[in-house]
């Protein structure tokens, strides 16, 4: 197994972040700084920041109802409330797909970096569903333009086509298969609307409503649900 893949399988970080750790000299294999692309076996001792790491034996996935005001970051001296500090889980977990500070709803976290990476990869087109309210009444033109893709000038990108359904005069549900930064807020703003509230209600096969969570609560997903996520991500 490649070293960066091994580090990710230990739940330390993603493979891309592992490459940065290796390049920074923060990884040792059998006490020696490794070469790029090195292969490791179960007999090798791998250290990150002088701590021996090992592959994740039990797969953990948490469903967390992130409240408004909590920041999706692991290290930010200016953030008063972060996901990791709010949960205080006994094993290191990281999240798949951010929710901005002003948004709420379902956030999935896991100790398996490989699963996190597969869930976040845009090319895999995994679905995420949201409930959104905007500042004024929406019409058919708004819905069509949102569904067909919106050009975001500041990112110089057009969003991928999506599913959208009107649920009220100023509200709608939307299903995305990509995760651009503050994507829904940017899409609405480009069409002259401002988001009043935004709540993520589903990530892939996991629905917030299935677990009756209140804001700030989390639950460990049952094995059957975890297995389903792995199958959806085409992981063993």
Give me the secondary-structure topology.
Blueprint: H1 3-9, H2 15-23, E1 27-29, E2 46-48, E3 51-52, E4 61-66, H3 83-87, E5 94-96, E6 104-110, H4 113-120, E7 128-134, H5 140-148, E8 151-152, E9 157-158, E10 163-166, E11 171-176, H6 183-190, E12 195-203, E13 206-207, E14 218-220, H7 223-232
Parallel strand pairs: 6-12
Antiparallel strand pairs: 1-2, 2-3, 4-6, 4-14, 5-6, 7-11, 7-12, 8-9, 10-11, 12-13
Radius of gyration: 20 Å
In whole angstroms, the N-to-C terminal distance is 15 Å
The tally of strands reads 14
* Poorly predicted sequence stretches spanning 5 or more consecutive residues: none
How many discrete domains? 3
- Helix-strand category: alpha+beta
Order of helices and strands: HHEEEEHEEHEHEEEEHEEEH
Largest sheet: 9 strands, mixed
Q: Report the CATH topology name of the largest domain.
A: Alpha-Beta Plaits
Helix content: 10-25%
User: How would you name the CATH homologous superfamily of the largest domain?
Assistant: Pseudouridine synthase I, catalytic domain, N-terminal subdomain
| General form | elongated
């Amino acid at each position: 197994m490649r070293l960066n893949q091994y580090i990710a399988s230990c739940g330390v970080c993603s493979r891309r972040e592992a490459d940065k750790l290796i390049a920074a000299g923060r990884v040792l294999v059998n006490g020696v700084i490794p070469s790029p692309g090195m292969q490791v076996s179960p007999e090798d001792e791998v250290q990150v920041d002088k701590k021996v790491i090992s592959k994740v034996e039990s797969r953990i996935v948490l469903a967390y109802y992130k409240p408004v005001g909590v920041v999706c970051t692991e290290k930010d001296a200016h953030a008063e409330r972060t996901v990791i500090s709010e949960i205080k889980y006994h094993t290191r977990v990281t999240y798949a797909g951010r929710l901005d500070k002003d948004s709420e709803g379902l956030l999935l976290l896991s100790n398996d970096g490989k699963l996190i990476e597969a869930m976040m990869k845009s090319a895999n087109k995994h679905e995420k569903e949201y409930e959104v309210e905007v500042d004024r009444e929406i019409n058919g033109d708004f819905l069509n333009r949102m569904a067909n893709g919106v050009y975001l000038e500041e990112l110089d990108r057009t969003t991928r086509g999506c599913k959208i359904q009107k649920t009220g005069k100023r509200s709608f549900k939307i299903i995305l298969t990509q995760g651009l930064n503050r994507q829904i807020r940017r899409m609405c703003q480009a069409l002259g609307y401002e988001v009043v509230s935004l709540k993520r209600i589903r990530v892939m096969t996991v629905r917030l409503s299935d677990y009756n969570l209140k804001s700030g609560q989390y639950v460990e997903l049952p094995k059957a649900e975890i297995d389903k996520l792995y199958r959806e991500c085409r992981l063993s």
